[in-house]
Specification:
Helices cover 13% and strands 49% of the residues. The protein is mostly beta strands. A hairpin with a 2-residue loop joins strand 1 and strand 2 (39-49).
């Protein structure tokens, strides 16, 4: 169990060190859950400015660890639809709905990572 934790820690530290580029993404969260021996459900939530480009149907992340001999790409597929999470007054509408000044949508992506 300790070795798995070391592998995951290394993988996620390496992911944090890579460059990322976005157009109108205002934030993101990544988490994982152990679902069996060597298998992890990876969840990535992206927050998008509705005035920008549309969200992708899937995302790819690189998973690498020279120490553990892991080098792979994991595809995360969008689950569910976009959620408008714009903080608004009750009488206001968001840009995500079409006629507001601004708006924020949340998209959720998931994939299964299998480690040796």
């Amino acid at each position: 169990m300790k070795k798995i934790f070391q592998i995951l820690s290394t993988v996620f530290l390496l992911l944090a060190a890579t460059d990322s580029y976005a157009s109108h993404y205002v934030g993101a969260d990544m988490s994982y859950e152990c679902i069996g021996p060597g298998k992890y459900r990876v969840r990535y939530q992206v927050y998008r400015d509705c005035r920008g480009v549309s969200a992708d149907a899937s995302l790819s992340i690189s998973v690498k660890s020279a120490q553990c001999g892991v080098s792979t790409t994991l595809t995360l597929n969008q689950i569910g639809g976009a959620q408008d999470i714009t903080p608004l007054c009750p009488s206001a509408s968001s840009k995500c709905g079409g006629n507001g000044q601004y708006g924020i949508e949340k998209y959720t992506y998931e994939g299964i990572l299998t480690l040796p």
